[in-house]
Model the fold of this input.
Amino acid sequence: MKKFKKAEAERLMPSRATFYRLLQRLDMSCDPATGTIHRGPDTHRPVPPFTPALATTPGEQVQIDTTALDLLALDETGKVISVELTAAIDVATRTILAAVIRPRSSGTKTGSNSRRHGGRATKAVDALLLLADMCTPQPMRSGWAKQARAEGSGLPYQELVDTDERMRGAAARPVIVPDMIVMDNGKVFAGRAFMDACAYLGISVRPACYHSPTHKAIIERTFRSVKTLFSQYVTGYTGSSLAERGTKVSGERLWRLDQLNDMLQQWIAVGWQQRPHGELRNPFLPSMPPRTPNQMFAAHVASSGYVPVRLSEEDRLRLLPTVWVQVTERGIRVRNRTYDSRALRDYRGAESGWAGKGRRWPVRYHPHQPEKVWLQDHRDDSFVEAEFIHQRLIGDPWTEHVWDQAVAAHLEQGGSAKQESAIARVVSRLLQRAGRGPSSTASGASVALERGPQVGPAPAKNPYAGIPRPDFTRILALPSMDVDPRRLGLPHRPVLPGAES
Done:
């Protein structure tokens, strides 16, 4: 049967010459050595000359976008996934104000056992959290290098601490509140939640024109730098094409998504904010060496001053997505989960007072921290917290991605999406299984996870002990990407097919 299918496929395939002619019609070509298909000139490319983006003060223009990061990682359930990066950069100082790594392929739909692959998983809440991160100092985390501290990093540390006490002991990344954000027309940024959050913070939004990447060229070039200065030194690097992919990438032991985010934040503080940038030169002294983003921010603070913007806990809650639901005797139903607390006593079955909403109240929720939700009472501008009623069955932190995986697994066993306690137990088993770590290879981990929960105690050995952690203090000293990283003791990433990993 297999031989028949193979013969049928060969019969239906066109000849090599016909295939190349079809590519020429599509304005594409194929490299016979690597099999890589190259597209022709972009028909949407704007007509030169190009006008560079200019900004005279920090926050005057901030560009935000999302791109694939060319990395493989493990999600919360231990499955191998590709990831993407969403980041915002300040044009005046070239500071990466905030960045987050999320799974690139979306998981299973809640209430359905069908899978969707290839779609982006960055959600509107990720863009909203980026806004909050821009207005908040980056705290130092355990295990970070001393070079990641704001003190001695080129920032005006003492002036910032005198103005904003939150900068004491913070990471080497300045706090810049945008005046204007330039974004693409994706639904993550063009949605109502993101627009409402920008309006609440007093930020104007300018969408880039369709098929005009030069309107946000700085963030596009920054993504390229992140891939060459960060991604290629992390295990699981796939390259931008098959021609740049190593032969043993699929067998490498991968980092978890939260670990990748932790490494990225450290790299931003050490390998980006304290690295000289070619575009940050003094226009009156062009012969002087380029400055780092932190030094450029310090120069702007010396000339125009610094006024911090403090976001309270209530302000952060207002940036979260909102659903309108009723408060019943059983509590609040949000995304097929029930939340309840004693503080909801006065809201059960009561009129909300919102025009046209009846008994429905605005409830804020966090997809990456769904253990709790917050009901907003507009009468005294307060928030009432409610907890997931089956949280005790899970115990550990979890995300909606894990919940969706648990729902799909429960449905495959003949269960119902309304059986919250049973789904919560599946979430707990998924988290325990992921906590045991991957097997010796990434592919082996995927196979083991597909077989179902494994019975037995967690191994005592750290499953990530053998993974080389990038030394970002040494990457910082990298003068150019023409230097062989093996001379600096860094993990070497092959760029040619057939090379050793």
Q: What stands out?
A: The chain is about 30% helix and 15% strand. Residues 257-272 form the longest helix (16 residues). The two ends are 37 Å apart (CA to CA).
